[in-house]
C-alpha cells in the first residue's frame, strides 16, 4: 500500500499539534512507522487519504457498536443540528437518554452526563470521596481510567506504551492517595485495605479490562472485591467506559452478575460523539451538585447533538438486544480462526476474549494481569500489526489494547482477516 498523502498530512500535523495527534496511541509509537490519516468510513470499513481500504477492528476505540456512519445515529444528529447545537439550558432529550440508560443498566437510579470517559471517572471518584468522607482510592496496574491526575499511576495502554506510567505533572500529593493493586489478585487488595483501614473511599477497576489487552476477571477476584467493599464500607466503582452497552445492555454488571456502586460510561453511550456519564443509586447521586455538595459541572454536558447520537445508539441497542449474541459469535469465530493459524505455524500465543472484545498476545503464558500482558513479544506484535495494516486490516496499534468488533463486520471480513494472519506468518 502507498501512504504518500498520509505521510504528508502527518508531517504537516506535527508542525502544529504535539506529535501530530490529539491522543497519543494514534501516533503508532508502540509499533513504529507513521499513522495513516482517515478520510471517511462506512460500516466495517475505513478509507484513508491515499484511497486504501481497511477492515476496522477499533471502531473508534469502542463506540461504534453497529459500525461507522450508522444510519439511525447519523439521521438523529443531522436533524438535531438543524435546531441548534448547544444552549446551556435544559432540554427534554437529556431526560430521554437518562431514562433509557437508567432502564438498561442494573442498580442505578440516576445518571449525570459529561463529555468524556476521563471526566466521568474523575467525577465519580470525587463523588465517592464526598459520599464516604474518605480520601484514598485503590486502582489496578494496567487499568486505564482516563488521563486525570489520580489515575495516571500504572495506567495501561497509552500511558504504558510510552513508558511513563507516572506522568510528569502528577504531584506526589495526588499520587499518595492512589494505591496500586494487581488485577485478579484479591490478596493484593486485601493487604492495601488492611494497611489503610478506614481510609479508602473507593476501589475502581475495569470490570473486564481492555487497556492491557482484554483481561477477564476471575470469579474469586470480582466477587471477592464486592464482598470486601460491602464489609469495609468502600464503594465499588466499575469503569464501564469500554464495557458499558458493549458486553450487554447492562454492561459488565449484567454480563458478570455483579452489582457495583458507581458506574462510569463513555464510548458507546455517545454513539461516536463525545459523551461520558456516571450513574449510581439515588442515595449516592443525591450528594452531587446541585442536589448535594459535591461539585461537578460542564458547559457542553448533555448538549443536544451528543444526546441525539447517544439516544439513537442506545435505542438501537435496546431494540436489537440480539446484537450482543451476534457480536460474541463473530468474535468467537475470529478467535478460533486466528488461533488455528498461529497454532499451525507454531507461534506462541494466547488469545483473550469476552463478548466483542478480544486481544492476541504473543506469549506462552496465560495473560491475566498487567505483568503477564507485558511479557508479550513486542517484535512479533509489530510484525503482525504492520503486516495486517499493509493488507487492509486495521488493528489497535499497541499490544495493550483490545479490539472492538462491530456489527457491520461480515463473516467474509472475518475470513479475510484470518487469511491475512495466515499470509503474514
Ligand atoms: C477510553 C477509556 C477511558 C477514557 O475515556 P475518554 O473518553 O478517552 O476520556 C476511561 N476508562 C476506560 C476503561 C476507557 O477505556
TrEMBL record:
It comes from the Bacteria. GO terms for biological process: protoporphyrinogen IX biosynthetic process. Its cofactor is pyridoxal 5'-phosphate. This is Glutamate-1-semialdehyde 2,1-aminomutase. Its EC number is 5.4.3.8. PANTHER family: GLUTAMATE-1-SEMIALDEHYDE 2,1-AMINOMUTASE (PTHR43713), GLUTAMATE-1-SEMIALDEHYDE 2,1-AMINOMUTASE 1, CHLOROPLASTIC-RELATED (PTHR43713:SF3). The lineage of its organism: Bacteria, Pseudomonadati, Bacteroidota, Flavobacteriia, Flavobacteriales. Pfam families: Aminotran_3. The gene is hemL. The keyword Protein transport does not apply.
